[in-house]
């Protein structure tokens, strides 16, 4: 390597910069350049695969950390004060001592940063040194290397269960069809396997892949963080371009599954990989309370400045009034005395230093600590833990816990959020004939019954169910089952094992075929051979083919669950074939229903029952299972073919020509296959009814009837709350296909506007469809969804449901989950154009206004509900109608929006949030909810069946909708009241303490003297009184969880401003002023004209202040647990111990305060105790009386709840039951009347 | 962090392993069901209502009133006599002294103040001098001292702390004791005479020791090189404060009460908390149980008037006081206790009435509002 001039280097660096910034990158293989110097490498401009996530280096840690810390305003405030203290004319304390607080805070924060960085460093090192295989030209094989050695342009081999080290373009897979599976749970949390296929036309599909033969240029886009999109094409030497996308990209961090090995070409490495680019720091949200707190801090600043002004002015006047130089005025070293005005000016700054604690800087640190504690308790709540998936609630945003207590609007997705998203095939309509599947419905109804029903079923069937994935050892080995006491528990364990996959339990996926339909099919099967394919057969072919369901064998499935096994798949297979291949029995429902199912199933051997389907959407899985029930078994799916077993037992292999994947704009998907028998090109399309119906071919009479009939059935399904899909078919001529295919290829290879082009080609093909039929799939409500919604509404929260479903389906679900009540006045808004929309809106608004003003309606619970569809919503959201719409929505108890797009969801949330200035919460489970989740004040993700995008974007992640209940009603309430009270207390504490110093200024000529030792002042805030408020903020419990859940109305106390209002802040400020006055003037009067000295005077003041502050908190604490006692008593003990020790050892230290033996001499004086007692009593009397009177004369509901909490649990439960029944009976005339006095209530009066 | 998330996933990946012992080892993330983690710790949940506050209020009332009465009586039993000798108005015997004063005058000015004691003082009598409007608590003044020097530190003796400026050096000689506090030390001499009815004037012996804190005299303050040294040698090379007439080692003839451990000096150095203060000057010890310490009658206070107060419009007083367990005379605390007790009692009665009248409304469960 030759020595390069600096100029060359700069040029090279610039060129590298340009190469990295370019929109398109050309990458070539590194192999021809192997062994050459660095400057000869073609891909040298792109970063290597070594990652560094650490923020600091060893040498630069201190300056960098300090620089970062000084970005916080609070730290700058501290430093300024410390510097101010070094100016001799204004200093209030020893300058060195004034540095202590800032040093403590800075070094604590630095320590935390250092520790975190060290952890990052260690994990980086571990990751960088992970072994991997890189192809070496010299050795002509893949050699073992480490992750950090991987460069762009290398060939990397990944074997099964290994993690992919960089973003690889898949070139070769051990699978003959060029497919490999990856699990992306490290990236997005989704555990279903994803298929990736080797780039076709590039790799020479020899049994062994030869990287040397790779002589093409890979052209790809600039790295971005989108995990689901990748644009790239490969330019062969003959200028032939082959496009590909995410389907050929193995992402760094994924795990290779079910594939022996695969070889990929590194396109992005290290920090440019998609997973690293996705690696954002946790989001920082400011809670409403914190925003409000900041305004109060401003008030504190104003207060501080005015107090300083008083001090400065006072000093000036005091000096002016002095006749001549008294002996106690100390001139400066030259014997010169400053003029009164200059001294007054200096005094202003001295006062700032003196009274600095008035700005509660430590409040921010304390709030952070409190929130950590609160989150600890939330995540540890066993009620928010889902046994089935073994997931806890996750708090992703750490600082908005208290916002949970102020929610006024909840926006919820429907599918997967309110419902299970476990799809069950219920009914279908083929060629205009409805097949209701009554037997299936009966079976499902039995299943749906609560536990008792489940027990019965399990008792009947002691063996593990048919399908393979309940083979987990623990269910079979006797040793292991001992922990599962009953069958019900067992079923849960099983559920646990299955939940990874996007479909429901075996019992639910099982479909009992409709008898009539079976006959139809068998008739069709009998007369097969005729040219015309029966539409019934076609329908089921469509069901089985038109999807993206991946088929995996049960054994493979199982293998996936044991990732830690070091054995190869083959071994695994052998072992498991031996042990866990129980003879499958099909004894159950055929017998009871008496169907002739066996004739259909006869040819299907045990093999087909080992299949398991992995679908990205549960609907698809349900449909494939339904097809299977009728004998159309999907056996295998590769990118190029679909293998299907027909009822006759014949296996058919359909060549898949193209798959037009689902997107939310088209709302449909299609698969283009070549029929193996007829050799026709057939396009199967399925989709939402409104997305299909308009694409049907020109309808002839009979066809028209079918379409009308199907539409009728669809409406019926929707009314029953079923999800509907239409199935169509289209035969494409060869010529048509050829021309389309060219367009398609061009679109796929495009880099610019690729999405639009691809969609256009899809739309181009999906025309002139002929209707086959429709299906109705049930998505059952999650458990206790109605209860949760009712509870939320009782808590004063408006619940909106935003769904993409048809209005009929949505309304039905709305009734089922009690979002809509039977007696509600439901306003249905659906209009085609804006004019109509405006007038409807006006009319409704007028009507609703009149309705709510009608005195007869004041006391009724009858609410108004609004149902609005997507297209009307678009108009209502337009700027001129927005206000009216919001006004209307405000008056509605619940709002149901149907057929909304993800964008509309977020716009609705944003509009309500901004127009009504309310706290909003959005909950959803799918990718379509992400924008809504991000738009709301609090986004909650449901880790359900649809992957993890919602969870990734959310602030809190829960696993069931019902958990929302406790999260909001209990934790939200607690967090909010705790934090609000803590903050108010904190303000009070600082003001009460600092004012002591302020009052003293009136007696020392406003000279800035402190009568308390500075060390003790620091300790006072740092140790003696810091832990109790933090504990208060984490652990105080005003009302028990049972009570909060039982009486959701209690939640209303926190809404709006709740406990932390302008008035509470100022009341506590006034109280602080009063208390400091008392704490100062009672000792002052007692020691007036005595021989007490400055610091002896300060000692009782300090002690009294401690008692007052601690006891003030005692009044505020609602529930005293052991922890409370320990901390409160510990703080007082700490004060005395530290102060006694300090004043015993400090003989001539810390001038001028010199605390030697002061506290000791005070504690020997009875006056000290008498003073402490009376001052504390007088100081706390008003607050105590305020609480007493408020609780006695006008007790808030919370206080009443606390009364009830003190009763023993059984009485309390009884009361709650009574309260509930009272509430439900008085639905019509709402609780203006007081509820019946229960027997328990008399006893309450005596408490 | 992506880097860490790999490990995390590996750790808590839901792997169900059957241990060799056979029991399933469910490595779930299920939180522990403990009272602490589930926030179900047994708790005392007091609710402040009229009912619960009543006993507390009555208890406070019943406790405070007797204590207050006790304090009040104790305070009233203390004898105290204050004699103002500032000499601000012309009729005062010290008027001339107060007018013709300067720190530097060498000729002492004396004045005599007669007073009459109406009641005999039975126990030990504490003689205080009182100053008013003297801000011993001014920030700069409080700081102006060197505790190391006062503790007997040799180095501080020759190099006084910067805090002492501008009273650290005089003519390049270090000042001992340095600083403004020492410089402005009270230097009036007070003597008390009993005018016997038969005309003789008996000097009352005033005890100059035992007036400072024991810890101050024995721990905090110390002469350089120990208290038994020849003090004039120990203070060699230092000079007296500007306003002082004598150097520090000539404050008292008693060797144990001289130099920095002179008790008058120690008392002065304990800077007063409030601008009007008194400081213990002398103690008149009780002789025996038969004769009162100070019998009824005429007395004369002889003042060597050295200390100027006109510059700050202050006043000078002499206070003769007996003392009790609660210190000097101060009726405030007694009155405060009685008042607070009474208020609490009254509030208790009000609450009782309220509790009886509308206590039944409590907790009738009307939670909806």
TrEMBL record, chain B:
A Pfam cross-reference name: CDC50
TM annotation in the entry: 47-73, 332-353
Recorded GO CC terms: apical plasma membrane; endoplasmic reticulum; Golgi apparatus; transport vesicle membrane
Chief location of this protein within or outside the cell: membrane
Superkingdom of origin: Eukaryota
First and last residue of the signal peptide: none
Keywords for the protein's UniProt record, in alphabetical order: Cell membrane, Cytoplasmic vesicle, Disulfide bond, Glycoprotein, Golgi apparatus, Lipid transport, Membrane, Transmembrane, Transmembrane helix, Transport
GO biological process, one term: phospholipid translocation
UniProt membrane topology term: Multi-pass membrane protein
Localization of this protein: Apical cell membrane; Cytoplasmic vesicle, Secretory vesicle membrane; Golgi apparatus; Membrane
Family per record: Belongs to the CDC50/LEM3 family.
PANTHER family reported for this sequence: CELL CYCLE CONTROL PROTEIN 50 (PTHR10926), CELL CYCLE CONTROL PROTEIN 50A (PTHR10926:SF17)
The name this protein goes by in its record: Cell cycle control protein
Organism of this sequence: Cyclopterus lumpus
Organism lineage string: Eukaryota, Metazoa, Chordata, Craniata, Vertebrata
Gene: LOC117727137
């Amino acid at each position: 390597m030759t020595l390069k001039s600096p100029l060359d280097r700069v040029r090279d660096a610039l060129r590298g910069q340009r190469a990295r910034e370019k929109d398109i990158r050309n990458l070539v293989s590194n192999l021809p350049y192997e062994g050459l110097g660095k400057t000869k490498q073609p891909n040298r401009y792109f970063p290597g695969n070594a990652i560094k996530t650490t923020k600091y280096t060893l040498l630069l840690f201190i300056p960098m950390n300090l620089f970062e810390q000084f970005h916080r305003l609070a730290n700058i405030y501290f430093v300024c004060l410390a510097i101010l203290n070094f100016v001799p004319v204004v200093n209030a304390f020893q300058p060195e001592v004034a540095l202590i607080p800032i040093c403590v805070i800075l070094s604590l924060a630095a320590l935390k940063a250092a520790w975190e960085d060290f952890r990052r460093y260690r994990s980086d090192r571990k990751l960088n040194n992970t072994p991997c295989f890189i192809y070496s030209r010299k050795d002509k094989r893949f050699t073992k290397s480490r992750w950090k050695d991987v460069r762009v342009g290398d060939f990397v081999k990944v074997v099964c269960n290994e993690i992919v080290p960089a973003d690889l373009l898949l070139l070769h897979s051990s699978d003959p069809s060029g497919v490999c599976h990856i699990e992306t749970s490290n990236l997005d949390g989704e555990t279903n396997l994803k298929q990736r296929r080797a780039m076709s036309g590039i790799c020479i599909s020899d049994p062994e892949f030869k990287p040397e033969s790779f002589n093409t240029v890979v052209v790809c886009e600039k790295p971005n963080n989108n995990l689901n999109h990748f644009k790239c094409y490969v330019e062969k030497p003959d200028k032939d371009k082959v496009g590909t996308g995410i389907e050929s990209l193995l992402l760094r961090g994924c795990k290779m599954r079910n594939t022996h090995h695969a070889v990929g070409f590194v396109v992005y490495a290290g920090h440019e990989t998609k997973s690293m680019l996705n690696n954002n720091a946790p989001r920082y949200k400011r809670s409403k309370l914190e925003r409000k707190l900041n305004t109060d801090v401003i008030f504190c600043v104003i207060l501080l400045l005015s107090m300083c002004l008083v001090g400065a002015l006072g000093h000036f006047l005091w000096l002016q009034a002095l006749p001549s130089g008294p002996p106690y005025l100390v001139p400066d070293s030259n014997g010169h005395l400053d003029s009164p005005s200059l001294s007054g000016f200096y005094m202003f700054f001295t006062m700032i230093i003196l009274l600095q604690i008035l700005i509660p800087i430590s409040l921010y640190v304390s709030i952070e600590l409190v929130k950590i504690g609160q989150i600890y308790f939330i995540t540890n709540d066993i009620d928010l833990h889902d046994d089935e998936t073994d997931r806890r609630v996750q708090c992703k945003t750490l600082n908005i816990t208290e916002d949970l207590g102020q929610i006024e609007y909840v926006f919820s997705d429907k599918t997967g959020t309110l419902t299970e998203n476990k799809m069950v095939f219920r009914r279908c309509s083929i060629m205009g004939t409805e097949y209701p599947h009554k037997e299936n419905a009966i079976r499902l109804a039995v299943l749906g019954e609560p536990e008792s029903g489940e027990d019965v079923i399990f008792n009947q069937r002691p063996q593990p169910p048919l399908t393979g994935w309940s083979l987990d050892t623990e269910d079979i080995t006797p040793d292991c089952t001992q922990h599962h006491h009953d069958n019900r528990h067992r079923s849960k364990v099983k559920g646990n094992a299955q939940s990874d996959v996007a479909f429901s339990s075996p019992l639910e996926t099982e479909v009992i075929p409709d008898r009539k339909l079976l006959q139809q099919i068998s008739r069709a099967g009998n007369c097969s051979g005729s040219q015309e394919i029966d539409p019934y057969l076609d329908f089921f072919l469509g069901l089985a083919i038109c999807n993206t369901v991946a088929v995996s064998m049960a054994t493979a499935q199982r293998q996936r669950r044991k990732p830690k096994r070091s054995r190869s798949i083959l071994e695994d297979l052998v072992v498991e074939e031996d042990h866990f291949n129980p003879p499958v029995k099909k004894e159950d429902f055929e017998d009871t229903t008496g169907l002739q199912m066996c004739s259909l199933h006869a040819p299907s051997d045990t093999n087909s029952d080992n299949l398991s389907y992995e679908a990205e959407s549960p609907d698809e899985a349900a449909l494939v299972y339904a097809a299977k029930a009728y004998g159309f078994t999907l056996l295998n799916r590769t990118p190029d073919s679909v293998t299907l077993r027909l009822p006759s037992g014949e296996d058919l292999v359909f060549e898949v020509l193209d798959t037009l994947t689902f997107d939310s704009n088209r709302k449909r998907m299609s698969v283009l296959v070549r029929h193996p028998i007829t050799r026709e090109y057939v396009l199967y399309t399925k989709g939402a009814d409104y997305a299909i119906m308009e694409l049907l071919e020109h309808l002839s009479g009979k066809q028209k009837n079918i379409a009308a009939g199907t539409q009728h059935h669809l409406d019926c399904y929707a009314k029953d709350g079923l999800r509907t899909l239409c199935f169509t078919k289209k035969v494409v001529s060869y010529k048509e296909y050829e021309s389309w295919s060219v367009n398609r290829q061009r679109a796929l290879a495009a880099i610019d506007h690729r999405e639009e082009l691809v969609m256009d080609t899809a739309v181009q093909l999906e025309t002139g469809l002929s209707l086959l039929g429709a299906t109705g799939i049930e998505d059952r409500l999650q458990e206790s969804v109605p209860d949760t919604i009712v509870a939320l509404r009782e808590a004063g929260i408006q619940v909106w449901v935003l769904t993409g479903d048809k209005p009929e389906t949505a309304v039905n679900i709305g009734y089922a989950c009690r979002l809509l009540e039977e007696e509600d006045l439901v306003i249905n808004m659906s209009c085609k154009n804006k004019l109509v929309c405006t007038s409807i809106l006006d009319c409704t608004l007028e009507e609703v206004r009149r309705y709510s003003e009608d005195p007869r309606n004041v006391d009724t619970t009858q609410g108004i509900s609004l149902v609005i569809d997507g297209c009307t919503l678009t108009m209502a959201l337009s700027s001129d109608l927005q206000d009216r719409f919001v006004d209307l929505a405000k008056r509605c108890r619940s709002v149901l929006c149907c057929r909304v797009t993800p964008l509309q969801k977020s716009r609705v949330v944003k509009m309500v949030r901004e127009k009504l200035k309310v706290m909003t919460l959005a909950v959803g489970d799918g990718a379509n909810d992400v924008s809504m989740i991000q738009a709301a004040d609090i986004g909650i993700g449901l880790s359900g069946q649809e992957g993890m995008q919602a969870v990734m974007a959310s602030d809190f992640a829960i696993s069931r909708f019902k958990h929302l209940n406790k999260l909001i009603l209990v934790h939200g309430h607690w967090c909010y009241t705790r934090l609000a009270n803590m903050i108010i207390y904190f303000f009070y504490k600082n003001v009460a303490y600092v004012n002591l110093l302020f009052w003293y200024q009136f007696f020392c000529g406003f000279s800035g003297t402190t009568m308390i030792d500075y060390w003790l002042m620091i300790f006072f805030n740092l140790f003696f009184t810091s832990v109790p408020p933090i504990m208060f903020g984490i652990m105080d419990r005003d009302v028990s969880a049972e009570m909060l859940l039982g009486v959701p109305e209690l939640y209303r106390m926190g809404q709006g401003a709740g406990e932390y209002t302008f008035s509470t802040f100022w009341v506590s400020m006034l109280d602080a002023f009063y208390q400091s006055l008392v704490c100062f003037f009672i000792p002052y009067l007692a020691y007036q004209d005595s021989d007490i000295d400055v610091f002896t005077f300060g000692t009782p003041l300090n002690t009294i202040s401690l008692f007052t502050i601690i006891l003030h908190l005692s009044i505020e604490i609602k529930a005293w647990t052991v922890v409370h006692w320990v901390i409160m008593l510990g703080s007082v003990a700490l004060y005395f111990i530290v102060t006694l020790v300090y004043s015993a050892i400090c003989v001539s230290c810390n001038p001028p305060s010199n605390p030697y033996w002061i506290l000791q001499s005070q504690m020997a004086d009875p006056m000290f105790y008498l003073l402490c007692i009376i001052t504390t009593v007088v100081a706390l009397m008003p607050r105590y009386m305020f609480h007493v009177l408020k609780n006695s004369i006008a007790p808030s509901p919370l206080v009443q709840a606390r009364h009830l909490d003190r009763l023993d649990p059984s009485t309390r439960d009884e009361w709650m039951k009574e309260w509930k029944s009272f509430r439900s009976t008085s639905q019509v005339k709402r609780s203006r009347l007081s509820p019946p006095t229960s027997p328990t209530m008399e006893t309450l009066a005596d408490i | 962090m992506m880097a860490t998330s790999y490990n995390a996933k590996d750790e808590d990946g839901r792997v169900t392993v059957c241990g060799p012992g056979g029991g399933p080892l469910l490595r779930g993330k299920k939180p522990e069901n403990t009272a602490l983690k589930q926030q179900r710790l047994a708790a005392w949940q007091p609710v402040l209502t009229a009912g619960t506050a009543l006993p507390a209020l009555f208890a406070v009332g019943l406790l405070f009133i007797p204590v207050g009465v006790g304090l009040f009586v104790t305070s009233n039993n203390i004898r105290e006599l204050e004699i103002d000798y500032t000499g601000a108005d012309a009729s005062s015997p010290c008027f001339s002294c107060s007018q013709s004063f300067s720190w530097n005058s060498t000729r002492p000015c004396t004045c005599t103040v007669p007073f009459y004691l109406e009641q005999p003082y039975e126990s030990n009598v504490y003689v205080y001098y009182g100053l008013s409007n003297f801000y011993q608590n001014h920030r700069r003044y409080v700081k102006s001292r060197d505790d190391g020097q006062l503790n007997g530190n040799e180095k501080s003796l020759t190099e006084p702390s910067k805090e002492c400026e501008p009273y650290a050096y005089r003519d390049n000689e270090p000042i001992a004791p340095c600083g403004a506090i020492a410089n402005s030390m009270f230097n009036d001499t007070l003597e008390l005479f009993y005018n016997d009815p038969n005309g003789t004037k008996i000097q009352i012996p005033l005890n100059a020791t035992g007036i400072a804190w024991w810890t101050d005299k024995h721990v905090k303050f110390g002469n350089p090189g120990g208290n038994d040294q020849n003090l004039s040698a120990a203070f060699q090379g230092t000079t007296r404060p500007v306003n002082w007439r004598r150097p520090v080692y000539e404050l008292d003839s008693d060797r144990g009460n001289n130099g920095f451990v002179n008790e008058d000096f120690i008392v002065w150095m304990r800077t007063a908390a409030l601008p009007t203060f008194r400081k213990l000057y002398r103690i008149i010890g009780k002789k025996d149980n038969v004769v009162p310490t100070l019998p009824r009658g005429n007395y004369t206070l002889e003042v060597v008037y050295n200390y100027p107060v006109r510059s700050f419009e202050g006043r000078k007083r002499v206070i003769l006081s007996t003392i009790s367990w609660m210190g000097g005379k101060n009726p405030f605390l007694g009155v405060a206790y009685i008042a607070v007790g009474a208020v609490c009692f009254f509030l208790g009665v009000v609450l009782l009435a309220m509790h009886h009248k509308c206590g039944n409304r409590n907790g009738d469960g009307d939670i909806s509002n």
